[in-house]
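FYI - complex with dinuclear copper ion, inputs then prediction.
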Amino acid sequence: MKKEWFYRHKLLLTSLLIVVVGVGLLASCGDKSDEAAAPESSGATTVSGDAAAIAEARGLTPDDILAAVKTYTPSGMYDEYVMFASGGHSGQVYVVGLPSMRVIKKIAVFTPEPWQGYGYGAQDSMEILAEGNVEGSDREITWGDTHHPALSETNGDYDGEFLFINDKANGRVAVISLKDFETKQIVKNPIALGDHGGTMATPNTEWIIEGGQYGSPLGWEYASIEDYEADYRGMITFWKFDRESGRILEDQSFAIELPPYWQDVCDSGKLDSEGWVFCNSFNTEMATGGVEDGNPPFEAGASQQDMDYLHIFNLDKAVEVAAAGKTMDVKGFPVIPLDTAIEEGLLYFAPEPKSPHGVDVSPDGQFVTVSGKLDPHVSVYSFDKIQDTIAAGNFEFDQYGVPILNFDDVLEAQIEVGLGPLHTQYDDKGYAYTSLFLEPAVARWTLGGDFSDLNDEEDWTLVQKTPVQYNVGHIAAAEGDTVSPDGKYLVSLNKWAIDRFLNVGPLLPQNLQLLDISEPGTTMPVIYDLPLPDGEPHYAQIIKADKLDPWEVYPEIGWNPRTGEVDENATQIGEERIVRDGNNVEIWMTAVRSHFTPERVEIKQGDKVTWHITNVERAYDATHGFALPLYNINLSIEPGETVTFEFEATEDGVFSYYCTEFCSALHLEMTGYLLVEPGE
Ligand code: CUK
Ligand code: CUA
């Protein structure tokens, strides 16, 4: 059957290959950014029949070949886009090139990671991880559940400087510098143990949004679940970000107390709606579980009502109210009380159908798209209508006194897109895209308003669906959260992968599928499958690669990546030394191909050791590792970097330390002895 088909299409295949290669050759003669310098063509000029034969042998269709041509990235050619995908409960972030879908890096964030020497002795990483522990608790938290990466923005466009990400499990937010793709800071939310509506950045990254999820007493003090409505609360936190220091300023941040509905995903307003923030909620029923006591289970109890509440925040005003000190203190953190938020006009609700999940502001800031998991429509709210309705002051109120805007007054359109709509993205052609978890598919529909002029299609109409494999959560479009999306590519972050890859046992990878959305109309093919062998990547953001400008090596020898300056213990060649002061031993070491200096460190059991290593290399990619057995020390020292680690020499014996990166032909000789003489 397949064979027959092939012969019928052989001519088409061959001509397609010839066209494709011809185009490729033309492109390779054309302008190419110096960054994307590819190796010279090897001189082959025609496609022999071999390519068609290979395609036949592999059972490839013309569409497959087209997909390959769109994504195949020869050795040395660079990708056009970079995707930052959450690593879910791996507590990390993945860096993926588009369109090749090659995984380029992972970034350790909430979880120790040995390759990067993150959390295995290196003081800077130990301190960052420790920042994420809960104050007043001696428990160490060594993982996180990352959901929503947010690139820093300038005037609503990704600027390539910083990345933020939340930890849903423990209510934390991390700051990553895109100069070295390393985590610089973790802040623990003092008033909540979990979060979900984070992270999102405001259009100039003044504020990082962290919305809550499961209701709990603020500060998680014990309160009986029977007193849920009285004692449990929701929250949203606004973290002040300081671009110059590259840090969240905890003492300039604040939260707003909310009713104990389960706040879900949030998005920042932009352009027209800049200064406003939108979050979904579900379980406005305030179900408290207890199926074992005869209560409705959560999945039913939290889905009884037809409507939940879109939360609409006036952030600009909230900042003023917080600055005026109209806050209460929860665990040392300023929280605007719910009553104050209502009085000051910081918080409004709009009904939203039905168990909503995604909320996404359109590129012009004019529309807010909400998807109800149990409703086949997306509901699109107009920001202007929201403003008019607020100004008219015609409200109902929920049981906590929060003003509720009339649904029909603020709704712009409802589009039936399919089953289980979750998240929406936008492109440059006036389309919106919504993931359909249950179908599973990605739906393309026309966004009305200013965008509709670009299309022949009707406003607010479903145009097409592309099936994906399988159940899709978020989707991410190129520059899709900015004021000027690029279109071109969309990645479907699928939760189920069942028959897409070889069987690797009961735990499967996630399937990230690349869709080509460059053609208007009804074409939107899947062109690549990336199995991601790690925690579930909930959301991703995709930035044009040329907006990133990371360092190749650290700016100066002795750089401390945490402080962003030369470390006081930076050690140049010739300055290496071991200094003893009582039973404190301090070591200043250098690493360069292919030796550590010193190569022998002799100490006594019980000594307190402080050890600094400076990689004095200036060559790109000349990273050295440092591994010390039994003491659980493992470092990655990038060119120019100074790393410090400390330990107490409780164990005597002979310990070979060695470099873990195969850095030169004599890498195996890059080693040394730590000799710990037994104490009395
Ligand atoms: S969430 Cu996981 S698919 Cu945390 Cu944004 Cu929707
Ligand atoms: Cu340095 Cu191997």
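The chain has ten helices and 44 strands. Residues 446 and 458 are 7 Å apart (CA to CA).
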